[in-house]
Write a structure and sequence with these properties.
Length: 191
């Protein structure tokens, strides 16, 4: 059990090209940090730029933290885990959010937040390397994704994530006989 949040930005109409590009670049940052492999005892601030890279490439940025620790019946944002300079190094077993975003004052805002467990990565090194296992199981807004911006690796990650959502959430929706919700899930997690 724990106390946390998860965020998905959705668009109920036709997004502008800027909204679609910004959303896709935020998603790219989320994916790039989520699949990163890094040495044990690495501080979050050291890897945080991977979440910003796709935005930085086109002169965009965000003014909030990239993630926070998860409390056990405590706060939604629990120190000392995260990606700021005063956070402790990441260790296997820690939970953190990964939540890049982009905000255009007076126009729109985007935030994609997942919860991830820090786990040991499978490498050929004798040294311990870590990565993230995303435990949030909520699809992203397909209406806002520009597939032409995603790399083949990012698309593979997205497809694998959608398979995981179907495998874990689909059976529960079937068990509860939530047919409309199951149909939405299937459509939202198409490769």
């Amino acid at each position: 059990d724990g106390t946390t949040d998860i965020t998905r930005t959705v668009h109920w109409s036709e997004p502008t090209p800027l909204q679609k590009e910004a959303y896709t670049r935020v998603l790219m940052g989320n994916i790039d940090l989520s699949r990163l492999v890094f040495p044990s005892n690495t501080a979050g601030r050291t890897v945080e730029s991977f979440a910003r890279r796709a935005l930085w490439e086109v002169g965009l940025n965000y003014g909030h933290g990239t993630g926070h620790g998860i409390g056990n019946f405590l706060s939604v944002h629990e120190w000392p885990v995260g990606f700021q300079s005063n956070n402790v190094p990441l260790e296997a077993g820690m939970f953190t959010s990964i939540e890049p975003g982009y905000y255009r004052d007076g126009e729109f805002g985007i935030r994609i937040e997942d919860i991830a467990l820090v786990v040991e990565a499978q490498t050929e090194s004798e040294e311990t390397f870590l990565t993230f296992e995303v435990v949030s199981l909520v699809p992203y807004d397909r209406n806002l994704i520009d597939l032409s911006l995603l790399s083949p690796e990012q698309i593979r990650y997205l497809n694998s994530y959608y398979e995981k959502i179907r495998a874990h959430v689909g059976p529960e929706l079937r068990r509860q006989r939530l047919e409309e919700e199951l149909a939405w899930l299937q459509e939202s997690t198409e490769p």
